Amino acid sequence: SLRGVIAIERDLPAEAEVALIEAARLWRLQAQVERHGGDLCLLAISRAGQGRADAARDGAEECLRLLQAQATELARAAALLADDAVDRGDVAQARQWLDRVPSGRATGGRVSLALALVRARLAVETDANDADARLAEATAAVAKNPAGSDTRLALAALQAETACRRGDAAAGVAQRRDLL
């Protein structure tokens, strides 16, 4: 639901939940909820934003179950859920969502970018040994795929954050200044 997406983007999880519940109700009435499982993931994110972890987890599980046969949509949903979990500081949950993406299944351009970016964010956030490799993968993915400005900005922000975390505040500040 567009209303739900806009409410999530505006950090209005309660409004997002209302819109997404209505969208899910309509998809269920039309027996088309499988085609719109992504709305259930957005509903889960809106519930997580309200601190309702159990309801959020249940909704996310239903979303991913409905999308199991659709590799690209499953990967997109898992990346979205993992990104939200990283935003909330729940790295264990982020890893669990990413683990739901079967390896070896093609996902395509923007979804591959989203996965690479959230994996890099998770690695940087946890100061993982493979953080540099994950950041390089995300950088290469952005370079070889036609990414939107949002993806390029997210990568540049992650690079700036990484520089700051590693003690190179001057480089991080310069990168952030370039972003703005």
Give structural notes.
- The chain is built from ten helices and no strands.
- The protein has 180 residues and is an all-alpha fold.
- Helix 1 packs antiparallel against helix 2, helix 3 runs parallel beside helix 5 and helix 5 runs parallel beside helix 7.
Weakly predicted, low-confidence segments: none
Range of strand content = under 5%
Binned, the helix content reads over 70%
Please give the number of β-strands: 0
Radius of gyration, taken over Cα atoms and rounded to an integer in Å: 17 Å
Query: How would a textbook summarize the main sheet?
Result: none
Number of helices: 10
The SSE string, one letter per element, is HHHHHHHHHH
Shape call: globular
Termini Cα gap: 31 Å
> Mean pLDDT score, rounded?
86
Structural class: mainly alpha
What's the topology here?
Blueprint lengths: L1 H8 L3 H17 L7 H12 L4 H14 L4 H17 L3 H9 L9 H17 L5 H14 L4 H17 L3 H11 L1
Helix pairs in contact: 1-2, 2-3, 3-4, 3-5, 5-6, 5-7, 6-7, 7-8, 7-9, 8-9, 9-10
List keywords for this structure.
single chain; 180 residues; mainly alpha; 10 helices; 76% helix
Provide a short characterization of the protein structure:
The chain is mainly α and 180 residues long. The chain has ten helices and no strands. Helices cover 76% and strands 0% of the residues.
